[in-house]
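As a warm-up, study this chain.
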Amino acid sequence: MADLAPSKGKLAGKVAIITGGASGIGEATARLFANHGARMIVIADIQDQLGLQVAASIGAQNCIYFHCDVTKEDEVKALVESTVRDHGQLDIMFSNAGILGKSEQTVLDLDFSAFDRLFSINVRGMAACVKHAGRAMVEKRVRGSIVCTASVGASHGMKRRTDYCMSKHAVLGLVRSASLQLGMHGIRVNSVSPNGLATPMTCAALGMAVEEVEKVYEGQRCLKGVSLREGNVADAVVFLASDESSLITGHDLVVDGGFASGGNLERVKLIP
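Now compare it with the structure written out below.
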């Protein structure tokens, strides 16, 4: 496959890590980073075969795969240290790894084994990525950008999926605190919050086909005539990772086609 990265672009010369980069939003973002001239994209995931395939399709000169389970801090630390050692620095961390979970838990029915697993990925893993990326950026004096994947559910209550909703609220707390603490080093920390889109993870969790998931969510957005896809979220991440957003930090960029502003969140049963 031809090299996707032009000589110039919004991310020209940048070194980036994308967790959860083997599929869905992470994969779309990796491909867009390459299109915008990133010097090296490190895809981190536990889906080894998929991750290797994505990296190979982008091209070895611009993209590599690194096995990393974000619930294990030593693996996150190794991911960041390996990236800095091999490529000189880390400019962008897209902390995207997360799960929806299979639970429809309400407060009265919380299964804490499922709760703990979800939090270990969505919250603890996210915090580990911000911690070690931030440390590397401070040490190398890089005015970097950290972007976390949150959700429209991070700003609202939900009738079900209590543990998921709580975990995404925690992501916003992490982003807001980290932006205050890392701003003195010139490091920006933001989040991107999509609403439902038909990623492989979402379809599997809901037990629905792509067309079914898209139909559920498209009917509940006030902005008509468009469909929310992984590429739309990737566009937002590129903006937050690039110098175009050089004065934006501590911000949650919602990408939902007017879903939340349209007042639909309260009524929806399927909200990732």
